[in-house]
From TrEMBL:
Annotated signal peptide: 1-28
Organism annotation: Piliocolobus tephrosceles (Ugandan red Colobus)
SMART domains referenced in this protein's UniProt entry, alphabetically: EGF, EGF_CA, FU
Family the entry assigns: Belongs to the CRELD family.
Top-level division of the source organism's lineage: Eukaryota
Name of this protein: protein disulfide-isomerase
Gene that this polypeptide is encoded by: CRELD2
């Protein structure tokens, strides 16, 4: 008996939070159905036919080549070359299926391909019975809704089409509805309808329902549109008495809708994009040439920085006052280095007992 190693109970409990944090294991890749595997094998076989069509021939004695090629065309050598290239060595399911059905493929190649030229139909549909012919479905390969020639009236996909699965019901393409996909959804109108065909065409964007392609053919207007003189026209939400956007935004109308865009950073309220559409300017900005521009406080007649020797630097919407490098900053001045040293010495002489220093 092989001894087993058990974690102490406390250690095992300690691992539990880590295990809970691990991402869930990815779902196993969906396995192909028997029909898909069979169709894949047939597709590779047909590609092998193409690849070997004129193998080792291409110049010289044409009469000899045609005679030899005619023999090679239906030879067991060519069959063997095709079979050897059907499956990758790592494809277990392909190799397993080939091994199980190799005799059927040999029989078709040597005896039946002239009578049954469609390998898929003979091999997958009639012999292995894992697929159905196009337009049919289910265990008994019944015709899809609308018939096997044009399933779902050509406007949808038949459930199980070409396989031994599904129920033959229709999954309609966009714009179509109904059991046979012959009816039009809201937003589409019937532009062609007869015993064999039904074509649904998109309405104008302003229509929820319609009988034709223009905004005058609407039965009902879409949201964001309104009926005006027999046509659905866009509602300009931006022109409403109560604006739909905040005070720091402007409204931009669009067909059937609108968007709220942020005002320029220099604006207090705005009617459009950029500093030229401000209702008012924020502090530190003033209207200049029709738009809000930064005020250069440092260039005004009235000094912004009032301390002696102080430098003024303009910034967007404001300014800063800074003493030059090496100057000492006091409450009412920027003191040069020499003056600062002199002031310090004078202060020392006024201290009691300075004679002893």
């Amino acid at each position: 008996m092989i001894p087993t190693m058990c974690l102490p109970r406390r250690a095992a409990l300690g691992l539990l939070p880590l295990l809970l944090l691990l991402p869930p294991a990815p779902e196993a890749a969906k396995k192909p159905t028997p029909c898909q595997r069979c169709r894949g094998l047939v597709d590779k076989f047909n590609q092998g036919l193409v690849d070997t069509a004129k193998k080792n021939f291409g110049g010289g004695n044409t009469a000899w080549e045609e005679k030899t090629l005619s023999k090679y065309k239906s030879s067991e050598i060519r069959l063997l070359e095709i079979l050897e290239g059907l499956c990758e060595s790592s494809d277990f399911e392909c190799n397993q299926m080939l091994e199980a059905q190799e005799e059927h493929l040999e029989a078709w190649w040597l005896q039946l391909k002239n009578e049954y030229p469609d390998l898929f139909e003979w091999f997958c549909v009639k012999t292995l019975k894992v697929c159905c012919s196009p337009g049919t479905y289910g265990p008994d390969c019944l015709a899809c809704q609308g018939g096997s020639q044009r399933p779902c009236s050509g406007n949808g996909h038949c459930s199980g089409d070409g396989s031994r699965q599904g129920d033959g019901s229709c999954r309609c393409h966009v714009g179509y509805q109904g059991p046979l996909c012959t009816d039009c959804m809201d937003g589409y109108f019937s532009s062609l309808r007869n015993e064999t065909h039904s074509v649904c065409t998109a309405c104008d964007e302003s229509c929820k329902t319609c009988s034709g392609p223009t905004n005058r053919d609407c039965g009902e207007c879409e949201v964001g549109w309104v009926l005006d003189e027999g046509a659905c026209v866009d509602v300009d939400e931006c022109a409403a008495e109560t604006p739909p956007c905040s005070a720091a935004q402007f409204c931009k109308n669009a067909n059937g809708s609108y968007t709220c865009e942020e005002c320029d950073s220099s604006c207090v309220g705005c009617t459009g994009e950029g500093p030229g559409n401000c209702k008012e300017c924020i502090p530190g900005y003033a209207r200049e040439h029709g738009q809000c521009a930064d005020v250069d406080e440092c260039s005004l007649a009235e000094k912004a920085c009032v301390r002696k020797n102080e430098n003024c630097y303009n910034t967007p919407g404001s300014y800063v006052c800074v003493c030059p490098d090496g100057f000492e900053e006091t409450e009412d001045a920027c003191v040069p280095p020499a003056e600062a040293e002199a002031t310090e010495e004078e202060s020392l002489t006024q201290l009691p007992g300075h004679e002893d220093l």
